[in-house]
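During the reporting period the student researcher (J.K.) took over the structure-prediction task from the postdoctoral fellow and processed the backlog of single-chain submissions. One of the processed entries is reproduced below for the supervisory committee.
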Amino acid sequence: MDEKYRAVVVTVSDRASAGVYEDETGPAVAAFLAGHGYEVAGTLVVPDDRPRIEAALKGAAEKDAALVLTCGGTGFSPRDVTPEATEAVCERRVPGLPEAMRAASARITDRAWLSRATAGIRGRTLIVNLPGSPRAAVENLEAVVGPLAHGLDILRGGPATCAISGA
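J.K. obtained the following structure tokens:
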């Protein structure tokens, strides 16, 4: 990562947004990002409500966040609509990131294959869905932290080389 990118973390959870329990995933993801050189510009919690999720994603992109990570809402529950909200606001899909996250996570649990996480680009903002549990979210993020940084360098106007240095 050539520069410090601004990131926003959006936790999607009916119960956390209602105060039934405290969000632990958003802070875990924010700490991971800060430890990898990102400026965490904000964290928020929204319910599993597609219009609210879409509004949060659009708002972060309008404030020029380079990266928006969602936590939760990627499973099979009828209220899990984070992937649909993400795809609705993105102009271009980035299927490789969720594929890599699922493959890495599947080495830990076969339930990884049930994730419906997606990723895409809205303007100059990359949006990536993560699982709802703190441990799984960080494990998924660890799997793509390198390619994520390179993708942001390109998306934000950095060098457009995909060659690995020294190769």
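The committee noted the following: Strands lie at 6-12, 39-46, 67-71, 92-93, 119-122, 125-130.
J.K. will present the remaining backlog at the next meeting.
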